[in-house]
Amino acid sequence: MVTLLESEMQPFPRVDYSSHPAYVSAGSPWSLSDDRVERVVTEIDAAFRDLLAGADCISDGEEARFNAAVGTRIDELQAYVLGTGGLTGRIADYSARAMKLARQALLDEWKFQVRSHRFRYQPVLTAAQHRKLEILKKDGVVCLDPIPEVASHFWDKTWWERRLMRRQADRLPWGRCAMAIDPHSPAGVMLQRTLRRVGVFELAGAYLGCRMEFLYAALDHAHERQAWYKGCYADVGMGTSETAYMHLDADCDIVKAMLYLTDVKPENGAFRFVRGSHRWVRSPFLIALYKGFDCEQDAYFERAQNTLDYESGYYRPRFQAADHRRELMCLPSSFRGSTHFGDDVIDGTPLSKQLLASEDVLAGSHGTFVLFHGAAGIHRGSQVSVGERWAIQIAFRASKERSERPPRYVEERLASLRYHFRRLKRTVLSTSEAI
Ligand SMILES: [Fe+2]
C-alpha cells in the first residue's frame, strides 16, 4: 500500500500560456469568466470522483448514472463556453469536438472502474512480483528482470520488419519510425508467449485491478536524424525545450512496457519517466479535454506519408501554427493545454527544473525490460542525439471479459498464413520495383 507524503500531493503541471513568449502577443481574447469555467470544471471533477468512489456497489445503469451526475455538468459548461459571448468559428467547432471526446473518455473510465470492481481480479503473485508491484505503485515505473535472450530472438525474427523500417527512415528521415508487430507473426507469437511466461499480465493486472490482455506491440526505431519533436517555437526564436515530448498517454485502462533490442545509453533515446508523477493531483476532466484537443488535431492538419507525423514536420502542429496559437488564447485559460505539454515548459523555470530533477533515465543493455503507467505518469523517449535505438513498446489493456477466451487454433493458423502471404507479396513487389 502506498501512503502519500505531503510532498507527493503536488498538482499536475499546468502551463501558463499567457506568459509564454510565443503567445503573449495574442493577448487573452477570451471574454467570458475564467472563474465560472474553473468552478464548473471543479464541480465536474468532484461529481466524477464521487461516482468513482461508489463504483463498487453498481450493478447496472452505469451510463445513466454518469449522465445524471457528470454529463449534465459537462453540458452546462459546453453551453456557457459555446453560448452567447463565447467561442465562435473554428475554435468553437474544435472545442465542441474535444469536449465530446472528453465526455466519452470519462464515461469509459467510469465503466472501466465499475467493471474492475465487479470482476475483482486478484492474481497470486510471487514475493518478487509483490516487490515489483510496490515499486510500480510508488514510482509509476519498474524495471523487470532483463530478458536479453528474448531481445536477441526478437531481433532475429524481425529482420523483414527492420528492413522495411530502415527504408522508411531513409524516405522520411525527420519522421517517426514505428511498425505494429503482427500478433500472428513469428515475433508476435514469441513475444506473447514470453510475456505470459514472465508473469507481466499478472503484475499489470494486479496494478490496475483488472485482468489484462495483450493490446499491441510496436517496433520502434529511433535515430539521430529524427526531428519530429523539434522546433515548435523556432519562428519566435525559441529553441527546443529541455522537457520536449514529456507527456502522459491518458488511457485509463492501459499499462505499457518497453523492451530494448539494442544497448541504450542516455544519448540513444533512452526511455525516461518522471518518478511518482502518476500520482500527482490533476483534473480528470481537463486531462480528458486536453487529450480531446490533441486527438482532434487531425481535423485541421494533414498527416505525413508515414501516418505517424504531420506534413508540417512537427508532432503538435496546433502549437506550431501561428493562427492556431492565436485561437488557443481565445479559449478559457484552463482549456489551454495538451497531454504533450513538455515542449511548452520554459527552460530554467522552477517547473522545468523540477521535472528534469525527478526524471529517471532508464538506460540499459539489450533485454532491459520496463513496465510503466504511461496513462497517468509523465514520460518520454526515442529522442536520440547520437546513434540509434531499437525497442519494442508493448501495451496491455484491461479485459472486458471476466475470463480468458479459449485459443482458436484454426483462426490463429489462418492469421499466421495471411501474415506470411503478405510478407511474401511485399518482398516480391519491392524486389521487382528494385529491378
Ligand atoms: Fe507515451
Question: Could you explain how this protein is built, in words?
Answer:
With 435 residues, the chain is α+β, with helices and mostly antiparallel strands. It folds into 2 domains: 16-119; 127-429, Jelly Rolls (Sandwich). It is 43% helix and 12% strand. The protein is built from 13 helices and 9 strands. It has helices spanning 34-53, 62-82, 89-119, 127-139, 148-157, 159-171, 186-197, 200-208, 284-295, 317-320, 322-328, 350-357, 409-434; strands spanning 141-144, 178-180, 212-223, 254-260, 271-274, 359-362, 369-372, 379-380, 388-398. The strands form 2 sheets. The protein has a 6-stranded antiparallel sheet with strand order 1-7-4-9-3-2. The longest helix has 31 residues, at 89-119. The radius of gyration is 23 Å and the shape is globular. It starts with 33 loop residues before the first helix and ends with a helix. The relative contact order is 0.18. The mean pLDDT is 92. Fe (ii) ion binds at residues 247, 249, 374, 379. Fe (ii) ion binds next to loops.
